[in-house]
Amino acid sequence: MGNLLRVMCSRALINIRMLIGIICVALCIGIDSVDLLPKLFQKDSALDVHYFWFNAITYGGIYGKYFLAVIVTLPYSGDFCIEYMQGVWRYILMKSGRKCYAFAKYVACFISGGSVAAAGGCFFIILASGNLELFLERRYVEIQMIPFAELLMESPKKYFAIALYLLFLSGGLWACIGYTISCYFPFKYAVHMSPFLIAFIITRINVIFNIPNRLRIDYWYIGRTLPLDGKYGILVVSVVAIFICCVLVWIFYKKVGWRQEHE
What we know:
Helix content is 72%, strand content 0%. The protein is mainly α and 263 residues long.
């Protein structure tokens, strides 16, 4: 089990797609405010780093929401497609066992997807903070409705640490969703594009049924709302992420077992 997990994590984290994904995530955060992008390179700007983060991630821009869900699938979510096309998945499955195989795959997938999202976000923050302040207090009136707004004003670094953690959970979940799709449709195009489509469908369902913002799971992982206040909200969000991953692992486990028996 340990050796399999180590191999899977190495394949997920040490590849060129990981680096490309990190750069693309950072670009997405900036491009969502493309008209103000030159301000990133101007000292004494009237904007701050959080302004770009808010428009791309917290508020849910096109690139920061939908394209990010696609980018996090790049490093590892298509791995089963490769194994399936090469026919080696049966050998690995027989050698390691179905439970160990599914568990190792999803741990590696979650870590890779979360790492791409969080590292890309951190990369953007580091680059932008070279010229801009992390947060300007005069903008507090604009963002006082979001979770941890007071923390943002008092300690922007702590706020961004929480924001990056939520982005890590979001990236991990989208990567695992893409991986689950691969066991039904073992084609890379389906794996990489399905999170984009699912994110759009979830958004439309929430709008059509007028789901309260506090109950919208998609808002939890971008820091727009939380189910509870403070640290308890973060705890609930973390538990829900683990639960969703467990459900996805179970779906993958069952589908791979079906393929093993019938193909």
